[in-house]
């Protein structure tokens, strides 16, 4: 291995490029690309990632690396060009991009801690001390003080920054740098094995020590945890036995197991002719390297079995397979299918793992202990160095888009990484996105079709119920119509399961005062709060702010808040009243917040210990429950009229997907779809499960209005704590963009700048929001414009205004 005197290092700071650091002699044997290092940056110490070795430092004197934080690379060297591409495309700092890719809790850096001095403690008794100063001195009066970030989160004072400086100059506060340790670390376990010293018959041992030696001799090696379960005093006794040489203690890294119940190995079923054709098409074109495919298969057509066969081929060729699924709830089902086929060759990556579990899974991938990774969007960064195939299930799903920080789309990155790895990529969906369907039409992708369900099971029969005819009906009939109630009763009497779908959680979505008619709004966001009856609170679904259920109206002070609207909690309550003998479960973000709760709910559905399931979009796609024969959609129009050009597409996909949960077993399925717009082409296309009809009606609108897939877009988001300042910054940003655009003749003809306007939700978490939308057929043109805006001095000098760049935005809200 070549030893380089200097290294290119990307630091975990918002810096647009990497930096060169010198390698001290004592670290020359350990520094390799893909490792974390602790480096000085200004007056701080921060985490950096080694990108490559260098022979010289260029035109300046390089600082030295302080320490290497890993014993093996966290990512392979051939993944670094991928990270560079992602950082460049999404206009995000390289070090922050790599930090996003890696498991959380691995950053080490200096954190500024504020601490009360002896002089500050004396000042606490000063009569003229303000309440804010007294609060700061009290919070900071601990051994280590309080971090500046924690202090700013605790105190709500607009002049806090200047006040801290004044108190520091007065000698009341001291600010020191404390090195923050990793939040995630490897788990080490002690293992006991027989020692080299022969037993001394002259030395008598206690019965407990004899028991330990007997167990160790029988097992040859046993973990201390397992030994302690048999001999509770083992930790103390094995130390004494080790001192006598009777046992040997070694410490090794152990992996925390994130998997659920064990699964029985399966026998691969015989493929249908359509499945076999799809698999053979991909395998017969492996010599072409990178080929993107759309696997367009109706719900229940057996797409997962195709994924299993393609992954098996990659593993047989000595390569790896990367499988993305959109929802954490779906990972369990996919993971069980893959574990039944591939056993211990599987790793999983998703946000519901603990930091330690995720670190262990990452370690298993990076060290080559597994061949297949299944995960949510962050799994696209899995540290494989020899990928044979990448699979994206439910490619249309918006969950693949990260909406903060590094705003990447994992589906799009799957195509990019497959191109870099020169391997096929398969995007699967029963309701392909307009973007990918257009790529097929224009010849960029090849399409693999599955027109029939496995065993030729019929698609569900879908009936539309016009809610307008129930406008004057009793409240219960307006939510659960007589047609749906009758269908539920018939389903339950037949011993089958029913899924009732509503993509809105909570009990009441529109609380308002009956005295002054003002809605109950969040203090920090411009949205109405939602009543969560089980928790007895009104909750904001954007920032999490809560008010007690008994709260008075903030506008008039009267306790006259009435609850209008409905969510999954209210549907659950109504169904319990209508069908008291039915076993009922609710699956939404609230009921699955606790770790393991989603898996427990899915298991109860699979084992048929529930009859009625009320769910949001968590249950709408991908799940295979053969006993569900009825799907009821409470309101099919909820998302159709949002101010977003993809609203119709999302509505169609959601309705078609949730309808596809019915009739996947031997009993044909039925869907009751309640709607106020039964004649709308989106609803009608969903009723007929006709992807082509929807695409043909939608695509002319996209073309006429210059929306994707005919243009590329970047959404510029500005936010800050002061309304007028954000508005002025947005106007200034628009002026800069227009000036840059007009200075280039070709841009003047092809680039459209829409806005600035207030965001559809003007305020979130006490930050006011404005946005601009930039469109052009040329991504290069809008990328150049936005990069120039990012670096413009009139923008960078506005310290209180955040500028967010969303490349290829999925939502315009």
From TrEMBL:
Subunit structure: Component of the replication restart primosome.
Purpose of the protein: Initiates the restart of stalled replication forks, which reloads the replicative helicase on sites other than the origin of replication. Recognizes and binds to abandoned replication forks and remodels them to uncover a helicase loading site. Promotes assembly of the primosome at these replication forks.
Cofactor(s) in the UniProt record: Zn(2+)
Domain of life assignment: Bacteria
SUPFAM superfamilies reported for this sequence: P-loop containing nucleoside triphosphate hydrolases
PROSITE patterns: HELICASE_ATP_BIND_1
Binding site for Zn(2+) 1: 513, 516, 553, 556
Keyword Zinc: yes
Sequence ranges assigned to domain Helicase ATP-binding in this UniProt record: 284-450
Catalytic activity from the UniProt record: ATP + H2O = ADP + phosphate + H(+); Couples ATP hydrolysis with the unwinding of duplex DNA by translocating in the 3'-5' direction
Alphabetical UniProt keywords: ATP-binding, DNA replication, DNA-binding, Helicase, Hydrolase, Isomerase, Metal-binding, Nucleotide-binding, Primosome, Zinc
CC cofactor note: Binds 2 zinc ions per subunit.
The family this protein is said to belong to: Belongs to the helicase family. PriA subfamily.
Name under which the protein is recorded: Replication restart protein PriA
Broad EC category: isomerase
Keyword Hydrolase: yes
GO cellular component term, pick one: primosome complex
GO annotation terms (biological process): DNA recombination; DNA replication initiation; DNA replication, synthesis of primer; double-strand break repair
Gene designation per UniProt: priA
Lineage: Bacteria, Pseudomonadati, Thermodesulfobacteriota, Desulfobacteria, Desulfobacterales
